[in-house]
Structure prediction request, 346 residues.
Amino acid sequence: MEAIKYSEDIQIKKLTLLGLCLLCSLTCWNTASWANDTDTDSPNRFSDNLRFTLDASSRAVYFSRQNQTGFMHAFGFDLHKVFSGQQRDIGTLVLQGYLTRIDNFVTAPAIFDDPDDTEFVYRIFNFNYTGLPGNWPNLRIGHFEVAYGLEHAIDTNGTLRQYQQGANLGIKADWGVSLNKQLTSFEYEIGATSGGNQELDSDDGSFVYSARIGTPRDENTVLGLAVYKSELNNLKRERLGVDVRYYHGLHGFFAEVSTGENNETDVLNLFGEWNYRNSTESLLYYTQLSYLSIDVTGNSALKGIVGVKYAPDNHWSLSTQYARDINVFVGKKHQGLFNLQLRYRF
Prediction:
């Protein structure tokens, strides 16, 4: 009974937060409409600056050690709406929700209860109020990515290509609030979130604090500095990280160095990627190396990844990726993962 009551409380809190996001959005819409009343040639409508797509994907994953194949299917929506007045944008609403099914998934993501399960997954689900003038910060509320590392500036939701955020920090996106701003010479985000991941709250005192400051993300060279502190499932993490992206022609070189502690045990995480896009950006090739060391005693893990993505237009893409453990922690066994994913947006 307590578990049922707790689940109901979580759903009520999620609906409340969603209501706040929509209320902020409607307030912005009304403000923008009022501001544009004097301009009869360009009436403000909700459909203005609105993008709405349906998104379907199917993924097959072969687990070499178990000699088994698992499947993941997702179908959902992606809404992006910018509210604008006469002088400036007032806010941005992003809602991404997906009904996701896994079957025979040997290592199921933490949000699923078992290898055969169905969950409604929130990816990005927030409202970012941008209406304050000058250099005043924006205010984001909802479900958003943790402000840390390469992942913060690159959208990898629903793709095979990832940046090991979950393995390093224990979480990729969370419910909470943040202050953020993209200025001419730098950008930043400072977030405080619940530690509940897909849940709005947690019953074990979890929390996440994160902050990142960096150069503008659309430059050829992008530098970032981030700090992170959390307690998730009674595991305390602290991180200090530096991330770098450098583009030379059609080539990209990414790196991230992250150091800190897990329950007062020293941790070092190194990550690197080389990628290449063809001139039409329909093909992406990448290779990655990820290194994690615990307590600098030789107990470390090294993983190599190669991947290809073919996306001839904005609607569909076909991706494949192979990940292989080169070195594993003491007591662990080597694993190889072959992924194949078809995705269509309409």
Observations:
- Helices lie at 2-35, 165-169.
